[in-house]
Design a protein that fits this description.
single chain; 2 domains
């Protein structure tokens, strides 16, 4: 947690104010027993009514001042903790946004969501308690010991015995619960993963009648989390009775030995009353520590998980001095590129070389797992090539700033991703300052204008999360229109026509060919009918290039392509 608190320099002024207010409150609390002792000794026992009224008025002022300081410190402490939580969430989100796909796959989306929400809430909650308790408690404890020693040195020996015992009990319980709290956070991740999968895959679950199976799966994860919580609470439940037992034994011991000292004249009644109050203040300050130690282990586990994300350096970063691309526009070249996914035995692609020029359409085809989508992800630098070079506009992508590289590319992913908002807002995601005419034109080319006009509010119609109120083909067409609005140098279509019927596919490709005459177009597809009109077709087989050429050339020269075509086209079409 110390690593997290190092970033709180901007809250230095409010924290200094909180410390001052808490110091004043503690001084007020420590001053009250002394005043009470004076009232007993010099007022009540001597019958001095004027002294009682005078000292009582001072006690009321001191108590009121302590209340004001406590309220002000609590208010400022809450503002600091909430501000720190907001800053930490922003910092974590920005850092996660800089991750490459490798880091996303390493952590997983469910745990990243938990760390950005639940874990930060745990740290934020304990921060409020630290500010309001852990600062006040040591001051009260140390000040109480000093004041108690001032009242009677011999009785202070009782505290010297009780306090170490109490600290050992707290340390023992804490050492047992910290590992369990780490397990709680991990099991919470697992439960969130199951819940997320069930919510996103509810259609598949119902279609295959797996509702009971998934319910049992969630119940098992929920029961596992609950059992761990119960184990934690059983250990923590041992702490409070022990605390109260020690506090009561201390009180009884003070009254017992104090009464004997009063009987021998070594101590007066007022001093005993003040000493008892100081002992209670010391004990309650340790009780605050106990309450803190209930929260700190879980917050520490949460802080470790947050630091694990913040401490993960992205594999893909911008160079210190990014290179500026040459005057070429839309040129893409692969030079002996090899890439292997983390932990994979074999490279996803190996020794791939080809070049693409503006005004050309290059298609990539191959069997499942041949590396087609991987090829496109390397162009956008979602992953870093292990060997070889990838040049965009004549410059190695590793030497370019990621923002500069990606603004040149219009990327349409294999699974269409839309965001909550209107149709128009989703299309403007590609280019925020696009005119209405540009938006309409992009929708027309993507064959999306018809179904958009049939929606209740047209381009202002709201889309559900992920575009779930649209069909697969409609989502793909909106994703294509979003890329067209951007008017990039390079269009990358990752199997983006798979959900379209043949008629719409043919119309879209014809309109697309006219609209992207000056740009570079790279298409990954499963259908031979989608790629057969391309200027160049690259055939991949198990990550290697099996052939490059036109449709007719490959039918004659490439056995892999001929097999794919034979499985999809009739004999008449092949001839």
């Amino acid at each position: 947690m110390l690593k997290i608190y190092r970033n709180m320099k901007k809250f230095a002024a409010p924290i200094a104010g909180i410390l001052l207010l808490l110091f004043l409150q503690v001084m007020s609390d420590l001053y009250l027993p002394t005043l009470m002792s004076d009232i007993v000794n010099n007022g009540i026992l001597e019958g001095n009514v004027a002294y009682i009224w005078k000292t009582g008025a001072v006690m009321l002022l001191a108590a009121a001042g302590g209340v004001v300081c406590a309220v002000a410190a609590g208010y400022l402490g809450a503002k600091v903790a909430v501000g720190m939580g907001r800053m930490l969430r922003n910092q974590l989100f920005r850092h996660v946004e800089s991750f490459s796909l490798s880091e996303f796959e390493r952590f997983g989306s469910s745990t990243l969501i938990t760390r950005t929400t639940n874990d930060i809430i745990q740290v934020q909650t304990v921060t409020i308690m630290i500010i309001n308790m852990m600062v006040r408690a040591p001051l009260t404890c140390v000040g109480g010991v000093i004041q108690a020693y001032h009242q009677d040195r011999m009785l202070t020996l009782i505290l010297a015995v009780a306090l170490p015992v109490l600290i050992l009990v707290i340390a023992f319980v804490t050492s047992k619960v910290i590992p369990l709290f780490r397990q709680v956070q991990q099991k919470l991740d697992g439960m969130n993963l199951i819940l997320r999968e069930n919510l996103t895959g509810i259609r598949v679950i119902r279609a295959f009648n797996k509702k009971d199976h998934e319910t049992a799966k969630f119940e098992n994860a929920n029961r596992d989390l609950t059992d761990t919580y119960i184990r934690v609470n059983r250990i923590m439940a041992f702490l409070m009775p022990m605390m109260m037992l020690i506090m009561n034994l201390v009180t009884v011991s003070i009254l017992w030995f104090g009464s004997k000292r009063i009987d021998t004249g070594e101590m007066n009644i007022g001093a005993l009353m003040a000493f008892t109050q100081y002992a209670m203040q010391i004990m309650f300050s340790l009780l605050m520590f106990v309450m803190m130690f209930v929260m700190i282990p879980r917050a520490q586990a949460a802080a470790d998980r947050i630091n694990a994300v913040l401490g993960t350096a992205p594999e893909i970063t911008d160079p210190d001095s990014p290179a500026t691309a040459e005057n070429k526009k839309g040129y893409v070249e692969f030079r002996n590129v090899t890439f292997r996914y983390r932990g994979a035995e074999q490279p996803a692609i190996r020794n791939v070389s080809f070049s693409v020029r503006p005004g050309e359409t290059t298609a990539v085809i191959g069997g499942t797992g041949s590396g087609k989508s991987t090829l496109l992800k390397l162009i956008s630098r979602f992953y870093e090539a292990d060997e070889g070079e990838i040049l965009v506009d004549g410059t190695d992508v590793k030497a370019m700033a990621q923002k500069d590289l990606r603004r040149r590319i219009g990327f349409v992913p294999q699974q269409a991703s839309l965001f909550t908002g209107t149709v128009k807002e989703n299309l403007l995601f590609g280019k925020e300052d696009a005119t209405q005419a540009e938006v309409y034109h992009a929708a027309e080319v993507a064959q999306a204008s018809k179904f958009i006009s049939e929606m209740p509010q047209g381009y202002d119609s709201l889309l559900a999360e992920g575009g779930r109120n649209l069909s697969g083909g409609q989502k793909q067409r909106l994703s294509i229109a979003r890329a067209l609005v951007r008017k990039p140098e390079i269009y990358v279509f990752d199997d983006s026509f798979s959900a379209l019927d043949f008629k719409t596919d043919a119309k879209l490709r014809a309109a697309l060919k006219q609209d992207t005459k000056q740009a570079t177009v790279i298409i990954v597809a499963q259908r031979v009918g989608t790629v057969m009109d391309a200027d160049r077709i690259i055939v991949l087989d198990e990550g290697s290039v099996a052939g490059i050429g036109t449709h007719r050339e490959l039918l004659k020269e490439c056995g892999v392509y001929r097999e794919i075509a034979a499985s999809q086209l009739s004999e008449e079409e092949l001839s």
